[in-house]
Amino acid sequence: MISTSTKRGYISRVNKFIDWLKTNLRVYNESKINIAIIGAFEIQYGYFKSHLKEFTRCFGSLTNIGFKRSFNAYEIVKDYIPDMMSKYELLTEENIENKEIDNYDFKERVLENDNFKEKSAKTNKNEHKKPLLSEKEIEEFLLESVFDINIK
Amino acid sequence: MKNSYGKTNNYRTKEDRMWILSAYRKKLPQLLNKGFNPFEDNSELYHKHSQKSKNSYKEHNVKSEEVEMTIKGLLILH
Question: In angstroms, rounded to a whole number, what is the distance separating the alpha carbons of residues A17 and B78?
Answer without folding.
Answer: 75
